[in-house]
Amino acid sequence: MGRGRQARAAQMCPPAPAACCVKLTKLIESINSGESYRPLRFQNTAWKKGYSGKICAKRRAGVHSEMIDSIIEVIKSIIINREATMAQLPIKRAIERVPGGMMIVPLLLGAVIATFLPGMPKFFGSFTNALFTGALPILAVFYVCMGSSIDIKATPYLLKKGGALFAAKVGSAIVVGFVLGHFLGEMPVSSGLFAGMSTLAVVAAMNDTNGGLYMALMGQYGKSEDVGAYTIMSLESGPFLTMVTLGVAGLSAFPWQTLVGSVLPLAAGMLLGNLDREMRAFLGRAVPVMIPFFALALGASLDLHKVWQAGLLGIGLGIAVVIVTGIPLYLTDRLTGGTGVAGVAAANTAGNGAAVPALIAAANPVYAEAAKSATLLVAACVVVTAIVSPILTAAVAKRAAARTEASDSTVGATR
Length: 415
What we know:
Largest sheet: none
Low-confidence stretches: 9-17, 36-61
Mean pLDDT: 78
Number of helices: 23
Oligomer: single chain
């Protein structure tokens, strides 16, 4: 073979260790990305055709090349074994198909365990028992993380829109709480069709807006500016406003230390998130992670035999929340220059609202009896409002679009 031909062959046939390193790197990347293994072939035509085979054979005879080839074979076997043994189940997707699923499904799972295997957590003890009984510490961390996502540097429009919707929803809860408190007091209805219904359940269901649902609906049907209004409305999160509402309604009040303590985790999170954007991003990612864990612990304190009754009442409560809060929210949105879509989109109940009755009972034992059924009622209300609110929002948005189109055509005709 001439010198020119050998030089061309050397260029076309890369050194084996380098080529194997490239192959090894691609295999490792496929492992990290979770992709299925596909045989990786060199694109070099000389290698595939065996061109200048003597030169390639000499280079592949090195110790380094053999070692790298062995590593490649081991990695291949790891990938093949992993694909054969680790079948994937769409657990998260299945849970998220249920409205408020990350709250509702673990809640019901905890209720099933508490009803049919009540001694299981204590039997295993340690961390297992803590997982089923530690709702309050998890909620404390949840509200710190939730607070970190609230930006206090809101624009004037967001302050106006978010503040108006916030006042309308909380104001509705105060009025309803005042009326129900006069007739029911702190205790739930003990018998009859409305057995289990309480002032606590109604106020907790009305006081907290489902932020994810609101922002999704506004992203689809409303203005992009209105999505940010939830920055102000997120102050509804936690038991503080429910405590204030119950106190204003003339029911058993809470000491000022308890009121301040209920809002401190949220305030601490707001401080951290606004002082440091990286802390906001770090803590904000934990908000959805916490929900199924405190839901499981809350469910472990429930009696599943009462779920069917709470479900029927929950349907009625959910429809009542959409109507009773939806009307003032719609009017408020119209008065602040909106189309009413943002108001109706906020007429729902947040998933973490189901945790509020337990927090209220922990702060004031007078509400302990009402909290048992209130948790189930609010959980059922979360599901119902998550179904009804989008349907109503779509209808209002369609009507608003038709009204705008008719107005534009009228203006065009006059010109």
